[in-house]
Amino acid sequence: MDLVLLRQLVGGVIATLKDYYTHEKLGEACKRLGLPEPPGQDEGTKRQRVETSFAALPDAALPGVAERILMSGEPPEPDAATRNAIQDVLWAGQGAIEIPRKTRREIARDLDLGDLAFKPDRFMALLDRLWVLGAPLDPWSDGSSGLRARIDRHVFRNPGDWSAEDLFGELGAFEAGDARFGKFLEGLACADVIPDEPAQRRVAAAVNPHLRSAGAELGETSTDGGYPVFSVISMRPGRTRQPKNLIFASPVKPDIRFRDAVDNDIEIVANADKVLVYDRNIDDGGLRWRDLQAWWQDTQQIADDSEAKRTLYRRLISSLPGNSPPQRNLFALYHEVYGAAVRDLPALLPEVWLHWDYKTARERGRDALLRFRMDFLLLLPHGQRVVLEVDGSHHYASPGGERPDPARYADGVRADRDLKLSGYEVFRFGAAELQGRDHARDALRPFFRDLFRRFGVTVSEAGPAS
Length: 466
Fold this sequence. Notes:
This protein is of the alpha+beta class. About 45% of the residues lie in helices and about 15% in strands. It is built from 19 helices and ten strands.
């Protein structure tokens, strides 16, 4: 993430706070945006107070302030060009799927603009969210040369003047960032824009033959109000389905039951304090620490961000086996190596339940599910799932550890195969690699660097500690 550019863009918006708020309201506005408390009213002009506050904002907190500016709906609101520039910086750190220009043009040539724009207000609302169209139409002035006016004339007033390829070119869609173009495709197939399921599916059917050449697909990932929801998803190894029950941080087998088997709703019957269940939607960006912390903060009713971060970290590390220093080193050093940048990185989830069976493995016998619990799980962008396992002697030796156990080792290898065939990537550490903090740090730093590079996870420049 280009934090230098982001600070420049956000700083320009923040500077306009002085134009919207009185001295008395300035501190409240800064707090709402996540800025440090500005100096007192008698310590400078409004401009000076805002500049001092923004200068004190650490780089690690800058993306959060940028997101609040984009989502608040209150002044200061950036113009469309600045909004897009801020979005592009933020989205660049989310590992968007690359869609080449040739593929984009082929997609545009096969789209029916009549299908896309048969609800003008909805279609224009989508364009307004993602592109720079210029000032609203004004019947009292001559704005006929602006993009908004040209879209009105060539798409709505004179259908057939422009093709979808013409429109894409005018918008700048062929040169736009991959994340923006992907969101545009998702919007074109969205029920908010096209409240007609057959028309939604025609859009997806036109897009997918070309998108698949880029290793992606406009896939149906969920429903909203009875309409399908389409998302740009990777067709490379990884899951495309949304997780339904994320049960983690539990050192013991949870006692659960279905409250509603039709809807897949579960209930923790006993020992609810020994298990966590993340029950929020996980978007195409994966599950980041900030998502997990926001969920924890809400469910635990914690007002202070720092307290939420501290207590969540303690809760997660407490779920790790006390007799496994290597697992604890892996968890602790992930947060130590990346420092404040962890907020925007995938959450490292410990003790995640993959399989659950009310019977024991002994009772189930040869049909028992293997690898019922994963040491760590990372939910990365585009549905990619990475499992990290720390192998102690119990993975390959007899229960007493006195001799090799080929049968036990074979069970572990088979479980790995099953995971990989199900779309998980599995990476194993020998416990000896993670013994001792310095030794473990030397192993983990290059591993996570290379892992994130492979899976398209961008680490902010405020990230890895020296």
